[in-house]
Amino acid sequence: MGTVWRAHDEVLHREVAVKEVRAPAGLPAAEIERMYTRLEREAWAAARVANRNVVTVYDVAHEDGRPWIVMELIRGIALSDLLDAEGPLSPQRAAHIGAEVLAALRAAHTAGVLHRDVKPGNVLMANDGRVVLTDFGIATVEGSSALTMTGEVIGSPEFLAPERALGRTPGPESDLWSLGVLLYAAVEGNSPFRHDTPLSTLRAVVDEELPPPFRAGPLAPVIEGLLRKDPADRVPAEQAEQDLRLIGAGGTPRTGTSAYSPTVTAFPGPSDTPPRPVPASAATRPSAARAEAASPNPPATDARPSPSSRDWPRWPSPWRD
């Protein structure tokens, strides 16, 4: 959605990240306005969440008729890049990362914000030890008007919750599903519902059972609890965070969560085959900032391209809104 620049705040004398969005040539004026509104909404959403695991927004300023977000410069590496470099993580390490991301999500949900784009490319592993959730570019804020057009599905299909794939109203449980996919990918090395096309991926999210995680160890019940098709059946965020922190500390939770029970729902639209039956039992300011170096697409780190719209190199490019 844009470029994040490393910059120097000449008033406060500190390094910052400045996010810029440039409209493609020929884009209709209404679409340009929607793009700029979404950028301002991103800053508003992130600024509502006061949590150490969420990127800090300092300011939004307008220059040349365009909004710019001035935010914390995070030095580190994206989780997607870490997984590419090191391969699948141990359940203990993945659980620690998941607990920190979930803490960020719980703070966001308390503030009335749904992130809607939780994935490894939007999680930064900071050099100071923090795990930071970034890129609130498609987040929704409680009480605000929608920026998505009717029938439009935005986000990365393989991380999309079934209710979002079906066009239903998402809730906090939709972010929990995305976290479950992230954890599965972190320990197994692949996304559980990824197919060759966006449509086939969305169908898999809605219709297919979760492939059993073989490397997850004590993390498996948490992953399975987050990836229940029915949002109401997903493990509560508080319980999930407790279990993740225990696993991250080397323990094994006594989870009372029942085994994964896939809910198979027919995907809307014509199909050559009838839907399968449901099993009976079985989710700064730009004017005061001097640009010093560039990296494409948010969120930024000081030394590498921002991964917010970057793909996992092992997989084909994810589909963007």
TrEMBL record:
Domain of life: Bacteria
Biased composition (Polar residues): 254-264
Region (Disordered): 234-321
Enzyme class at the top of the EC tree: transferase
Pfam family, one: Pkinase
SMART domains found in the cross-reference section: S_TKc
Transmembrane helix as UniProt keyword: no
EC number: 2.7.11.1
SUPFAM superfamilies referenced in this protein's UniProt entry, alphabetically: Protein kinase-like (PK-like)
Alphabetized InterPro entries for the sequence: Kinase-like_dom_sf, Prot_kinase_dom, Ser/Thr_kinase_AS
Record domain Protein kinase: where: 1-246
Keyword NADP among UniProt keywords: no
Compositional bias ranges of the Low complexity kind: 279-295
GO molecular function: ATP binding; protein serine/threonine kinase activity
This protein's UniProt keywords: ATP-binding, Kinase, Nucleotide-binding, Serine/threonine-protein kinase, Transferase
Family annotation (PANTHER family): MITOGEN-ACTIVATED PROTEIN KINASE KINASE KINASE 20-RELATED, SERINE_THREONINE-PROTEIN KINASE NEKL-3
Protein name (Swiss-Prot/TrEMBL): non-specific serine/threonine protein kinase
Taxonomic source organism: Streptomyces avermitilis
